[in-house]
Amino acid sequence: MSAPVIYYIRHGETSWNAEGRLQGVQDIPLNDLGREQAAHAGNILADLFARDGRDTASLAFVASPLIRARSTMELVRGELRLPPPGYALDDRLREIGYGRWEGSTLAQMQVADPELFAQRQTEKWTVSPPGGESYVAVQARVTDWYASVGADTVAVAHGGTARALMVALGLETPVSAADLTIEQGAVYVFRDGGLEKYS
């Protein structure tokens, strides 16, 4: 049996994204641009489904429980002419936890803890912020989530969980994924052992 297709969407922009602040598990809502990006991703998805002859009834829909992901999913579903609810939540898809660094910019973290900041810059996959998670831990929970997926799925989550999934599926290495930009308003399609981005 072939692996399920994952249509992966990163949540739209928030004010903290715009300010360069690490959000982690803080529940920051979408801003106006973020809502536009979410609707745009929904339109891309609708076009992909039309092109491939996909029926949304055959798909599962799941989101991170954080409000920015849930709002994005509901806007995406609206573009697909589906009722905004009607999707599952899975805590394994929540963003990487940045612990005490949440709410800070990279520049502020560098000033507050230059030694740990420098270590994390060179070993981003394995070093955890104070009270936060490592990407190794995120990769473990995302791998567990992926193993539980039984049908082609639309997933709305975060940049950190996208990077972890790419590494879990052997599409990136920890080094290449660590600083990879995950675009907002795009759809990443994990299919047949490969990855395509539509934006």
- Ends apart, CA distance between termini: 29 Å
Structural class label: alpha/beta
Shape verdict: globular
Number of strands: 6
How are strands sequenced across the largest beta sheet? 3-2-4-1-5-6
The helix/strand order is EHHEHEHHHEHHEE
Kindly provide the name of the CATH class: Alpha Beta
What's the helical proportion of residues? 40-55%
CATH-derived topology = Rossmann fold
Q: Using the 3D structure, state the CATH architecture.
A: 3-Layer(aba) Sandwich
Mean pLDDT comes to 96
Query: What would you give as the CATH superfamily?
Result: Phosphoglycerate mutase-like
- Any idea how many domains? 1
> How many DSSP H or I helices?
8
Assembly level: single chain
Question: Sheet bearing the most strands, described?
Answer: 6 strands, mixed
List the helices and strands and how they pair.
Elements: E1 6-10, H1 15-19, H2 32-52, E2 60-63, H3 67-79, E3 88-89, H4 106-112, H5 114-122, H6 135-148, E4 153-157, H7 159-168, H8 174-178, E5 187-191, E6 194-198
Parallel strand pairs: 1-4, 2-3, 2-4
Antiparallel strand pairs: 1-5, 5-6
Helix pairs in contact: 2-3, 4-5, 6-7
Q: Would you kindly provide a written description of the structure presented here, covering whatever features stand out?
A:
The chain is of the alpha/beta class. It has one domain (6-192): Rossmann fold, CATH 3.40.50. The chain has helices spanning 15-19, 32-52, 67-79, 106-112, 114-122, 135-148, 159-168, 174-178; strands at 6-10, 60-63, 88-89, 153-157, 187-191, 194-198. The protein has a six-stranded mixed β-sheet with strand order 3-2-4-1-5-6. α3 (67-79) links the parallel β2 and β3 (88-89). α6 (135-148) packs across α7. The model has no long low-confidence stretch (mean pLDDT 96).
